[in-house]
Design goal:
Elements (H helix, E strand, L loop, with lengths): L3 E12 L2 E12 L3 E5 L6 H8 L7 E6 L2 E2 L4 H7 E4 L11 H11 L5 H11 L15 H12 L6 E5 L7 H16 L3 E6 L2 H7 L2 E6 L2 E6 L1 H5 L16 H9 L11
Parallel strand pairs: 3-8, 3-9, 6-7, 7-8
Antiparallel strand pairs: 1-2, 1-4, 4-5, 9-10
Helix pairs in contact: 3-4, 5-6
Length: 258
Amino acid sequence: MTTAAISVQGVEKAFKDLKVLRGVDFEVERGSIFALLGSNGAGKTTVVRILSTLLGSDAGTATVNGFDVAARPGDVRQSISLTGQFAAVDEVLSGRENLVLVAQLRHLKNPGAIADELLARFSLTDAGGRRAATYSGGMRRRLDIAMSLIGDPPIVFLDEPTTGLDPQARIEVWQTVKQLAKNGTTVLLTTQYLDEAEQLADRIAILHKGTIIQNGTLDELKKLLPPAQVEYVEKQPTLEEVFLALVGEDGSAQKELS
């Protein structure tokens, strides 16, 4: 196996006359969060589909967990989980039943125990017996990520995981993603949100018109710009700070601010 969890070299993809990927190169270290940042249509989802063996590339090579995605797709699939832009939970079932079902489909022993452990891990124990249709957007997304972790895949692909979520739900998902990496899971995250990449990623690759135009840590990317002129101004609270102060960290409204 290579030392990198994911290695992509010269990957190209076109759909008829539309060139979506024009030679993409990057590597993702094991146990890190890697953000693929780009606007809509940049090719982010196409990269994820190729790496998860759902789509073949036209040129280049890619390995996931040391396995070539073209030559050994079965081994790649056993090494990963994929969470798409919209939560794939069964709303008729309860949160616990969703988890038990996935564990059973993967022929794992003690599916009930697996479900209970994940409910606790993702702070969903109290809601475990409720139908998923009653969950908030953040709870549903956390359940979706929990379902994808059944079987302990070493690598997780999160394709724009906070699309359509409100600010509080986005923060809940961010906390979940950080915890994944803390537990040793490698996370490849695609996003079009600059603050999301800034909050989560150890490294950020900017994908633009099918190519990686920059790749580095946040500090390395900031150094690409000239030093900012130092000015002494009154620090204003961010919108996120105002929002959390008003609604509270747990979502309960605050009557007054100190």
